[in-house]
Known about the structure:
Residues 28-138 form the AAA domain. Residues 204-372 form the DUF4143 domain. Pfam families: AAA_14, DUF4143. It is a single chain. By secondary structure, this protein is an alpha/beta fold. The protein has two domains: 14-131, 3-Layer(aba) Sandwich (Rossmann fold), CATH 3.40.50.300; 146-423, no CATH class. It is 39% helix and 16% strand. It has helices at 14-25, 39-44, 59-65, 88-99, 118-121, 148-152, 166-175, 186-209, 215-227, 235-244, 255-267, 298-304, 309-314, 316-337, 377-390; strands at residues 28-33, 49-52, 77-80, 105-109, 126-131, 146-147, 160-161, 340-346, 353-360, 365-371, 397-402, 406-409, 415-418, 422-423. The radius of gyration is 22 Å and the shape is globular.
Amino acid sequence: xAGSSQPRRYLPRLADGMLDDRLHAMGAVLIEGVKGCGKTAxxxxxxxxxxxxxxxxxxxxxxSIDPGLLLDGATPRxxxxxxxxxxxxxxxxxxxxxxxxxxxxxxxxxxTPQDDLRRHTGAGRFATLTMRTMxxxxxxxxxxxxxxxxxxSGVSPTPSNCPLSVTDYLDHIAVGGWPxxxxxxxxxxxxxxxxxxxxxxxxxxxxxxxxxxxxxxVRRFLHAYAQMVAQPASLAAIMKRARDETDNGSVAPARDxxxxxxxxxxxxxxxxxxxxxxxxxxxSKRLTTGPKRLLADPSLAAALLRMSPxxxxxDLNTAGFLFESLLAxxxxxxxxxxxxxxxHYREADGxxxxxxxxxxxxxxxxxxEVKLGDAQIDGAASSLHRLAGRVSRKPAALVVIxxxxxxxxxxxxxHVVPLGLxxx
Length: 424
C-alpha cells in the first residue's frame, strides 16, 4: 500500500533489459521520464555508485566548482536528476571519451534543460532511454496471452478468457501506473495525484519555463488538455475548450502563453503525444500531421477531470477516451521494448481514422483500434481492413483492443484482444 513504512519490493520493468543493452553499447545512458515513473529505482538496479543531486545538498555546489568532482566512483555511476547541474553533461561526455569504455554512467532526468545540450554534444557517447509509468503487465495486474512482439511476427494469439472487467480497468485508470501506488486504493491515489498536480502547477512549471506562471491559467489549460485526451486536437481546439469553460470573470490563456505552457509540459514529460503516421499509401490521401494528445499517465487525465470510476461509469464517452489513453500508454511501452514506434493515422477529410499503428524499423506494422465494448468491433475491423487496403506494405496483424472478456480471432483475420491479455 502507498505510504507503507516497509521497503518496497522492486517490480521488474521492461526498461531493465533496454538499459542493459544500452550500457553494453554506449559510454553513458540518459534515462528520461516524468517525475515519479521509477527512473531512479531502475537505474539503481544497475548502478554501483551514485550521486543523488536532488537529495545531496552539497552535490550542486561541487558541480558548480568542478563537475568532475561528481564523476569519481565505481561504474556504472548514477547521476540522478543531472539537469540540476547542467555542466555535468559536458563533464560526462569528456570522461566517456577519455575512458573509452561502455557502461560508465547512468544519468536520469525528469525535465530536459532549456538549451537542450544533448543535441550538440551527446552523439556517439550517450544512449537515451525513455521511461514511462508502469504498464498493467509491469504492475503484475494481468497475465498476457498476446504479445506485441508476436503480433509483429505474424503470430496469432490463442483464444483466451480475460479476468478483468470494465470496472477493473477504470480502477487502474484512476490509480495509474505510478510505482508508489502499486497496490494502493483510490483514496490514496487521489491524495497522491492531487498533490502531484499541485506541485506541477504551483512550482515545477515555473522552474522549467523560467518565469512565474499564473496557477489558475495553468490548471485551466491542463484541464482543457485532459478533456481532449486520446484525440488529435490542435492547440487552438484546446484553447477554445479552455475559453468555453471560463467563469466568474476568469480568462483562458492566450495562444503565446498556451504555447509556453505546452512546451514546459513537454520538457517535464507531463504530456506524451503520439505523432501521426505517414505511410506509403496507394492513393493521394492527405493525412493529418498533428499529434494525438496524451498525458504521461491516464490517472492524470482522470484526476484533472475529477473522474472517479463511479463517474466514469456514468459517462461512458469520457470513459472510452480514458480507456484508450490506458491502452496507448501500455502499447507504447510494449512497442518500444520491441524496438518499434507507435503512431496514429487520420486522413485530413476525416473519412478514415485508425487509433494506433505500431511500426518496426523494417517497416512491419500493426493496425490497432480501441473499443470499450463489443458493439463497435465490426466497425473497428472494417476501418482496419480499409487502412490495409490503402497501405503498400501488408500489415503483420490487425487488432481490436477491448475491455471485453474474450480474446479470439475473427473470421476476417482481425484479432480481438482484451487489454488485460496484451503484453510485450
